[in-house]
Write a structure and sequence with these properties.
heterodimer, A: 1062 residues, alpha/beta, Dimethylsulfoxide Reductase, domain 2, Barwin-like endoglucanases, Alpha-Beta Plaits, 31 helices, B: 581 residues, mainly alpha, Cytochrome Bc1 Complex, Chain D, domain 2
Amino acid sequence: MKDKKKQYWIGTDELNNVPEFIEEASYEYHDEPLLNIAEDEKTLGVKTNRRDFLKFLGFGLGAATVAAGCDIPVKKAIPYVVKPETIVPGIATYYASSFVHGGDYCPILVKTREGRPIKIEGNSLSPIIKGGTSARAQAYVLDLYDVNRLQFPGKVGDGKPAKTDWAEIDRAAKSAFAKGNVRILTNTIMSPMTQAAIAEFVAKYPDTQVVTIDPVSSSALLQANEATFGSRFVPGYRFDKADVIVSFGADFLGTWISPTEFAAQYVKNRKASAKNKHMSWHVQVESRMSLTGSNADNRIMVKPSEQGAAIATLYNLLAGKAGGAKIAAPHPNEKAASALAKVANKLWANRGKSLIVSDSNNKAEQILVNAMNNMLGNYGSTIDLTATSNQRQGNDTDFKQLVADMNAGRVGSLIVMDANPAFTRPNAAKFLAGMKKVKFKVALGTHYNETAAACDYVAPNHHGLESWGDVEAKRGQYSFIQPTIAPLFDTRQKEASLLIWAESPNYQASAEQPMYEYLKAQWNGRLNANGSFQKQFDKLLHDGVYTVIYETKDDVNFNFDPSMVSGITKPGSGMEISFFEDFRVGAGEYANNPWLIELPDAVSRTSWGNYLALPIEWDGGNEFTTLHGLNPEEFKGWADKVKLTVGGSDKEVAVIRQFGQMKDTVSLSLGYGRTVVGDAGKDVGIDVNPWLSMDKDGNVQYFASAVEVSPKVGKDKHFSCVQYHHSLGVTGTDKSGEKINVDEKTLMTLGEGMQGGLVDRSVMYQTNVREMDEFLEHLKEKRAEAQELNSKSLYPVEKYQRERYGEGHHWGMHIDMNACIGCGACAVACMAENNVPVVGKEEVSRHHEMTWLRIDRYFYGDYENPNAVYQPMMCQHCDNAPCENVCPVNATNHSSEGLNQMAYNRCVGTRYCANNCPYKVRRFNWLDYSTADLFEDNPTYVNKESLPYGSDNLTRMVLNPDVTVRVRGVIEKCSFCVQRLQEGKLVAKKEGRRLRDSDVKSACQTACPTEAIVMGDLNNKDGELNKRRQNSLNYIALEEVDVASSVMYQTKVNNRDESLDA
Amino acid sequence: MNKKILGFLLLFLMATLTVFAQDADKGKKIFKDNCAACHNKNMKDKSVGPALGGVQERWADYPKEDLYKWIRNSTALVESGHKKAKEVFDEYKIPMTPFPNLKDEEIADMLAYIDAVHKGTYGKKAGGGGAAAGGGLPADFDQGKKLFKDNCAACHNKNMKDKAVGPALGGVQERWADYPKEDLYKWVRNSSALVDSGHKKAKEVFDEYKIPMTPFPNLKDDEIGAIFSYVDAVYKGLDKKQAEVKTTGTETPGKVDVPPTSRSPWPYVILFGILALLAAFLWHRGTKLEYDAAIARGEKPLGKPKSFLGTLFGQPVLGFIIFALSVGLTFIAAEYSVAFGRQNGYQPDQPIKFSHKTHAGDNKIDCQFCHDGARRSRHSNVPEGSTCIKCHAAITKGSTYGTAELTKIYASLGWDPSTGKYIPNYNNLSEDQIKGIFTKWIRSKNSDAKDLDNLVNTQWEGIKSSLTNPTKPQIQGPVEWVRVHALPDHVYFNHSQHVNVGGLECQQCHGKVQEMDVLRQVSPLSMGWCVNCHRQTPVKFKDNKYYQEQFPWHKKQMEDGTITKVTVGDLGGLECQKCHY
């Protein structure tokens, strides 16, 4: 159902025009009554009387006097003893390496300063990723400095590892392994070097078996390929070559297989413009709104249990066209079935240019997906069987067998490498019971987790940025891992541990870097025989990537017959729940990384935990209802807690009302509620893994039926959803039914027609590709109207832009909202680059998040099945900036290069600027998040911790030394990465030439996997930025308020097929 | 005594004058504003007043001040009976308009301008590619210059005449004339190899200097050739003849070295005190007279006037004093709090008595030989210990302290000067083992000392106390210098921007480091100080294509002479986010 009145919305309260919400949204910050904030015991327990006040006063005066009389501390300048040749203090050195975490993969460049890694960039030489990154890759560097890393070899006992030494572990391990029946339980291994080390281990202890699992299983996909092609592999998908993409639940832009790679491919075929109106059509079949679904043109809603039926239905439809054998299949809901018929037509019309993918972990369903792709002739065109992917290798059947073996006492020793099945598997309890029967268990990982806690020893592994290694993520496409810092702790690379236990002659313990020698030995002979090996190998490490081209296989031996298909999931009835992998913390692997925990989810906009997504129903009028009327006060930072019962067991969980969630379904993400985890991940969200189930193959099923959601049982007072924070241009209807801007309500009462009385603000535009011409006319008119208004300004913006910014540099940005998929890589990159603090759940719920760059998500279209659009929002560097005029101390002002600059040391914290910013991008340091305050002992009570996140000396090693760490009480905001601009200019000056595009790139720009963001010099007429700014789909957010923003957005174009909803 | 001071003053004045005489551009403006009404601009023809060309020569027989006096007030000079003044006055009969407010340097600027125009040199800029391309200079002069700067200048003196770490390069080709040209090239690429091969000349040079020359295996033949032709040109002074190339190197530009005239406040304070006393006294007399007059008129006065002391300590005066004091104290407090954290004049003792005077002054080692970060990084870098070994592998006894200070470096690094090698596994040696190594070394080097045991002991104690502290109990490891120049964390300063792009001499901010035995912070490093320099200092607009291409309007204005320079501030160098981000 669609209401034409309202084009864009962010949440129900806005649509409902709850008067309280309108009131609330008119304030810059969430105004909680003082008593609510002071309600905890700590505050209420404080009793201050007049005498205390006088004492404090006296102390304050005394302290100030003492502080003022202090001597300046003596600072030391400590040089190197012998300086490494590659280090010039003050100059960053980049090393090519790879981010690998199970199957997650990204070739990276690691920026190091004075020998410490501080930032991750994408490696643009990589043919797979082409320079993009993901939020996880960006946050990888913070993991290195995690205080909760395992810091020494340990013997497990009393719930934590006690310090021991390597010799003891090695002795115990070797004697245990000698007794036989060794099992190695590992996450997916993409490294030939690791495989070689394991092979040596197996050669030494022959009755060793390797069991591979993935944190989130894709086991059925591999089984299906084994059945149809005869070997276990994940094919190479080519989303750029597909004109019709149908995804059954696969969140391929967020988490599925290789999202960074797929995102880059996907947007290539989505960039429609006035000149080129061709774009792919993407249909997502799902029950919850995934990141991928939010980017899809059409969504077909099926319950989790109906997904198999939907696949089978589509198969039968296509088989009918192709003349293939039909199968007996269950039916999905009516609406989905009729939509699928239309999808089948389109697919058939685009044979060879279509692609069907599914995240189903049911072998029969995956076989059907393969059969459909085969009927459509997609193998060889949109699915590459040559460059197959190694990113998922987990075998659930093997794991099931392992658990059985362990419980039967058939396993002598167990080596756990990185994997954490005690948390991620539905049969964890059985696994843990089996562990007790294994004599010797050792965990090789970087962190202490649920599985390590059940082991006898932990043999801590190096962090990836301290390791040597290689990766073959896709067949023939190699990249390398090289250390960028000496190991911080007494750890040992996991391959070294295996080799030592295998007493391998190839492991040269006396070498300076044994694993380097080992890696080199692995590659010796595999490179060009002509020429020096060392030289070639050095080049490999320098480039970080190496590609061997395999010849394309033409004949695909596809083997399918309907009898292979048995066990398609039967659609259930009643309420169902889907469990999904979060693009931030995965299945819990990243649950201790505060950058990722605090990054809001793209669709639900929640951070710090998992929230049960409830569907929203619309009565066709002005009413939205959710189950039991839950969460009426989301905008106040409060969420209701409910009792969620799945299959008999229940847990309390906070809920969120979620657009795009199918009726009678709910969803909840994996990866939270870890019990054995570090400080950051403690008590964050709830664990859903016990609710997962397994099918007959042992494949984990990520949904459940027979779900009950109780009415409200409690309240989450720190609902850390940023949905209603910093909203701009939120419109609502006033008492008389007129549409108004809620944040300018007061002005509206004075009279319409004033600038503040504009009721239709140009924050967001979208159009259907078929209505583009019409839209362009409309946009042109709107922009002309705004420009007409602006031309009446007293402030001579144009003159200034011409005369003041006409020479030198004038920095600007262009953001293509067609390319932006909401993945959050830019937001994390910004935090890393600019030392943005993590504030914690409570602070987020009070609108105090410090992010300089946020990704606003707007819904549009049908209320019950909407589309979404993402808008990265950061300081727009207005040339007529309203924030600048109101600063009483001129702490924020304009540079001759068009930058809206912020001088922290001048700021006195009036926050007038934040109040006056139409884009709401200025952030205030309410607390001393960074402990950069003058008085060391000041920050005692931030986030209920002794120290705020990241203020310990280890984590502070990640800080960018070129950017000031802000103290409490100042405003901060996006600077367009001014430190990079200055650096780029300096390079050009030193070389005595014009500035090039490549000299200056903002952190968000380099992080983006889809090249959605381009920043550059507006005065460089031939630059990429000016090229992009020519597009007729461009607009300026809030152009009508005449702030002369330097950022331009390109309208989102969708390819929604309305007939599908009919 | 007085004569000496006078002489010094005169010298100082002349020095100032010569310095300012360089600035003909300023002089042009002064001339235009003041003189052009009566004197012809071409300086050659008479107008109301005489042609000014050659005026200094015409007055050369008289002290310089006389001409200045004439400009300020010619009539007075004529009346004083000055011969030349009378002569000029008699010729033109019209007394010259007096300019009593023109300062010495302004007059000097103006005279420089006059002189330049007269001689036809004004407007013809020194340096630049155009001039260098003309005859006389070798074609590869510029290439050679750059290569020399990048590779050789760290060890060889730029004037090609004096020794530095390495020998003076002037005439090197002549000195090697007996050998084939390739030998010299080989020497440049890898001197040690040549020495090892038994080459006679090579051995001779090595024996003299002991320090092997840094090898430059990547220099091509034509590049080495370019360097030599540059060396030759400089040695023979061709460059000076061609164009007035600005002097660089260890000679500090005079402008910087002029100490700022400090104005003592005391004369004012004393003057103020006397005047205040006088005012109080007059007031007191006034009231007294009024009182007397009232008595005399037979009126009843309001009250008996206070005594002088009574007036002095009376309420109004005290009130004023308190007011003045509070204003003054607030001012002082504000001044001090603004300066809080600044430390110009800071001259802490360092763990090692390293003398910049010995190194940069006496031995003329280029600053960037050790502080190699300055030209490429934001930090100038306190040199790592191994830098010292570059020279002190050969020079094992210091000129001032002998082994006392140098051994500290060896002990910090683990360099054994007696073998010329790093001591293996040094980090794991015990203190006694280290003591053994270095006391033996000190003993061997000071064998002629009187109380050898005592000397060795004192030196060892010195090493220990300099290299250890409560947080660093080990002798091994870096020397913990006391940082002299420190900017607050919220200030971004980039050395390479200033040294490399701006072309500043180190001394401009750090003072005459080459004369300091103990390093001292000379500049306040305050924001006002930075900003002031950014306001005044021109960027190398004409030499850098970046500026030329990115700033076309400024370029145009430079070309039509509307402006003569573009300062850092003109290009946004005063904005907050140039230094704070």
